[in-house]
Amino acid sequence: MRFDRLRLNGFKSFVDPTDLVIHEGLTGVVGPNGCGKSNLLEALRWVMGENRPSAMRGDGMEDVIFAGTTRRSARAHAEVTLTLDNKDRLAPAGMNDSDALDVTRRITRDAGSAYRINGKEVRARDVQMLFADASTGAHSPALVRQGQISELINAKPKARRRILEEAAGISGLYQRRHEAELK
Length: 183
Ligand code: ATP
Ligand code: MG
Hints:
This protein is 28% helix and 21% strand. By secondary structure, it is α+β, with helices and mostly antiparallel strands. It has one domain (2-138): P-loop containing nucleotide triphosphate hydrolases (Rossmann fold, 3-Layer(aba) Sandwich). A hairpin with a 2-residue loop joins β5 and β6. The two termini are 31 Å apart. The model has no long low-confidence stretch (mean pLDDT 89). The structure holds adenosine-5'-triphosphate and magnesium ion. Magnesium ion binds next to α1. Belongs to the SMC family.
């Protein structure tokens, strides 16, 4: 599954609408300390359904909303849209009628997150499963946070196993089994 585009609006330091085209091949993000490189990676994780504020370096999920500066007031929402190439029609049934998938997550203060795929409201789970199956999910080892290598080395065996399961592409199956057992 290819990522074509990442759009941010009000997410962390990206207060103004920002549109990034992701070209094929290797992409590097460079810039001085504090310019927002890690925030970009966090936006990617967040739109894929990350639900741990700690993974966003915050205390609560609303900390991803632009908090304001001396010159600009805080925002009430943050929104991130990730555009996926769907020419191969790899998306789950019912989402396969177009060449591109726009996955959007929006958070509003005191109202939590809402998700859309191509403009249609979906559940957080639908988005998480879309990416879990593509082995690129919010917890995917394809995304390595700053400081994560040392965390990995010090991880307990159970945590390390979870990482391996995601890499093997079976974490989506576990989630479905868990839900089937609850029914
Ligand atoms: P480094 O090179 O040090 O790793 P970086 O480019 O990864 O830096 P980030 O950590 O992505 O930088 O960005 C940090 C900046 O984002 C800080 O200036 C911080 O104030 C700002 N920031 C984080 N959350 C918010 C928020 N909710 N509202 C406004 N600004 C925010
Ligand atoms: Mg950083």
